[in-house]
């Protein structure tokens, strides 16, 4: 049985493009030390998961695949998946988290332009990953000028994820999302990025989410 689990796990990892495989490792950092994850190849990551989550590695992987938007792989390999309360629903149930001292005003982009409150759809991690994959080399300019993030924080993100631009972009967007909290909506992010120098496909993608 353990062998079947390992074979399935390896096939799932091999089915991921490199960027999503790196995204998988990034999203596992809360459960496995980054020092083990970052240099791990696909077979090595399988071994780590089997050791850390004996008998449960496929379920853990399925949870990460859902965050990456790869429900097709969950279905193809018939992976077990626990039902979880979506982040946006949990926030509605528990109420807004207390605002911490020093947090900038939420709901506004740099320049004081409020986002249009036309669509309350909150951004999920798979949405942020798809935006991250489209951001170009001007990601720091986007972060500083259009998302209002500190340059020092962006440099820290780069140091924590060496040689992986997609993860720089993804973590930058998550930093913005953490700051905005419940106001990190699709329309809010689109408003912030509207005048940035970036791939027009990003705005088209966010527009399509608004139409969901």
What amount of the residues lies in strands? under 5%
How many beta-strand segments?
2
- Give the helix level as a range of percent: 55-70%
Gap from first CA to last CA: 41 Å
Give the C-alpha Rg.
Answer: 18 Å
Question: How does this model look, in words?
Answer:
It is a single chain. By secondary structure, this protein is an all-alpha fold. It folds into 2 domains: 5-77, Death Domain, Fas (Orthogonal Bundle); 125-210, Death Domain, Fas (Orthogonal Bundle). Helix content is 58%, strand content 2%. It has 13 helices and 2 strands; from the N terminus they run αααααααββαααααα. The protein has helices at 2-14, 18-27, 34-37, 42-52, 57-67, 71-76, 87-94, 125-132, 139-146, 151-160, 165-180, 186-193, 200-210; strands spanning 108-109, 113-114. A two-stranded antiparallel sheet has the order 1-2. Helix 12 runs antiparallel to helix 13 (200-210). The chain is globular, with a radius of gyration of 18 Å.
């Amino acid at each position: 049985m353990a062998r079947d689990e390992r074979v399935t796990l390896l096939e799932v990892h091999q089915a991921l493009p490199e960027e999503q495989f790196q995204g998988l490792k990034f999203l596992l950092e809360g459960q496995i030390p980054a020092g083990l994850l970052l240099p791990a190849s696909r077979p090595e990551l399988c071994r780590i998961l089997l050791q850390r989550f004996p008998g449960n590695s496929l379920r853990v992987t399925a949870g990460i695949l859902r965050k990456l938007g790869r429900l097709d792989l969950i279905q193809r390999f018939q992976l077990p998946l626990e039902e979880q309360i979506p982040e946006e629903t949990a926030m509605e149930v528990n109420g807004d988290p207390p605002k911490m001292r020093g947090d900038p005003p939420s709901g506004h982009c740099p320049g004081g332009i409020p986002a249009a409150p036309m669509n309350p759809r909150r951004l999920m991690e798979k949405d942020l990953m798809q935006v991250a994959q489209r951001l170009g080399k001007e990601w720091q300019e986007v972060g500083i000028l259009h998302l209002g993030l500190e340059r020092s924080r962006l440099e820290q993100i780069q140091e924590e994820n060496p040689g992986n631009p997609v993860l720089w972009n993804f973590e930058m967007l998550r930093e913005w999302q953490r700051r905005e909290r419940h106001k990190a909506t699709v329309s809010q992010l689109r408003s912030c990025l509207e005048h940035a120098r970036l791939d027009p496909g990003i705005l088209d993608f966010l527009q399509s989410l608004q139409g969901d």
